[in-house]
Amino acid sequence: EVFTMFSNSVTNGGKTTLAERLKKMLPNCDIISQDDFFKPESEVETDERGFKLYDALDALYMDEMVTKIHNWIRSPASSGVVTEEPQSACDNQNSIYILIVEGFLLYNYEPLNELWNRRYFLTLPYEECKRRRSTRVYQPADTPGYFDGHVWPMYLKYKNELEENASMQVVYLDGTKSQEELLSYVYSDIIQELNKLRE
Asked: Which ranges of the sequence are coiled-coil (predicted)?
């Protein structure tokens, strides 16, 4: 059996760190990161202000990402990253493999919507998000005004779309809380969900 979840977040919300720490704590767990599917800079659209539109689905090879996720779900044990081998054939039938998909534009992408057992969304207030963004080095580097002109408006747009979708069940997480607090909460929540699956 497969348990899939995604960790979605505003830029620099802490989703990658959270996902990596969860992977170390959970058996049979793997991560697929949306950041691995960005198109090269030359293929990313530029708007009339000269901003590269990275915070949009068109900036990503989403078909490749969907294929990778489906392949993992079909055969998780052959993914090469299983952290806990089943003890016997009997145990094998009861094993649950966990896939964490982490990214920033996952919740509103229709081909993936039916896959998730659990959805988490890390939020940050504007000032904290901008502060964290300023401490990171990006390739290509952020141009002046890029955060206010593209990154933050796109985050608000997608977050609003998510909130307006009443059928989408999402667990919102406060990204200003400590990593330990977030990790403890999400880990406990996942364990509860896994126990339901086993029942």
From this structure: none
Running DSSP on this structure, what letter comes out for residue 151?
I
Count the domains in the chain: 1
> Which range marks the domain in which residue 126 is found?
2-83+92-198
pTM value? 0.84
Say if residues 65 and 34 touch (Cβ distance below 8 Å): yes
Which three-class secondary structure string do you get for 4-38? EEEEEECCCCCHHHHHHHHHHHCCCEEEEEHHHHE
In this prediction, residue 20 has a pLDDT band, given cuts at 50, 70 and 90, of very high
Give the pLDDT confidence of 31-85 residue by residue, as tens digits.
999 989 999 989 999 888 888 888 888 899 999 999 999 999 988 866 655 545 4
* Bridge partners for 5 per DSSP: 100, 118
Which domain CATH number covers 20?
Answer: 3.40.50.300
